[in-house]
Amino acid sequence: MVCSICNSDLVSETRVCKTCGHPVSDNPTLEDIYFSRLAANAPPMLVRKVRTAPYLEKERRTVTAIMFTIADSNTFIQHIPEDKRNPLINQALDRFSKIIFDYEGTIAKLWENTVLAFFGAPVTHEDDPLRAVYAAAAILEEVQKYSSEIEESYHVPLKLKMVVNTGPVLIGDIKSNLRFSFQSLNNTLECIDTAIHAAIPPCKIVLCEDTYQFVKPFIECTKLGEISLTDINQTNHLLQVDRFINQTHTPLRISLSQHSPLIGRQIELDLLLELSETVFAGLGRVGLILGEPGIGKSRLILEWKRKIKTLHQPSPVRWIEAHGLAFGRELAYHLMKDLLRATLEIPATAPMDIVKQILHLSLIHISEPTRPY
What we know:
Layout (H helix, E strand, L loop, with lengths): L27 H14 L2 H9 L6 E12 L2 H6 L3 H21 L3 E6 L2 E6 L8 H27 L5 E15 L5 E5 L3 H9 L8 E4 H7 L3 E11 L4 E11 L21 H15 L16 H12 L25 H11 L7 H15 L7
Parallel strand pairs: 4-6
Antiparallel strand pairs: 1-3, 1-4, 2-3, 4-5, 6-8, 7-8
């Protein structure tokens, strides 16, 4: 078996060519049919976003990719009558793709019993790594439901092996059925392809180290070990997601219970408290706290919050926080979007229908006061 792009020899069951980084296709014609069916069932808003997403041919994008496949597929298939296999797999694909679309990811590639999804191309969000991990968790929940149905009829459970990695790819033309060409860079997909064949636990989210660096404030993990990419002399650390951390208690928000004294920032603190007094008097103000990373900006804000509690407040103070994340630095208005979500208390990974519902209710609330006309 050879790669259709670079003619390199391929190892059996390889899904990504280790030489050129292009995906290996099993049956392009059948894949086109699957993509057309998926596109027909995709949310119209997502379809519009994909088809109108600004991009250049062969544009480099950073994506978070999920690859999942049926664990011990031979045993699973042997228990399913031949005439029931395709409908059963298609129904599973429909269920899983809906979850991916809900988090505004896209299906990048389909192989026999294996799916590759991208978060970050063609549609990009500032929190794509986190969206991918939440989507992976939702898929595993759906697997448990579907597996119980299958086991009741055919006495065999459905289990998935799932790996997530973040890195660069090249994105090509997007077809009308939302299928697009792509090429792996820096071994983004080669790592996933190697890990999915390794002895990883089924029905667990397994992260490569690059994804873990983005989402570690939101999860607790167990180290699984290393995988070796012998063709490129590289190793990659794998981690298993154990649970999600309540976002209100993440390291992104320093606890008010810290008692270490603030030293050397009294002038800045006095200026902020003076600004607070002006705001309490009913006048709007804007303050900027600028400085190099690690200089103590968050610590200064923490002390500001504490001191405000000692001031006379005509009404309770509401703190609304937004965070500029490193992987969203090139996305327009990403900080304003995060601020709006925080103001309306919209979870960062909420599906679009929930976002619409909250926005609708908020607009109704704003328009409730009696107008003077």
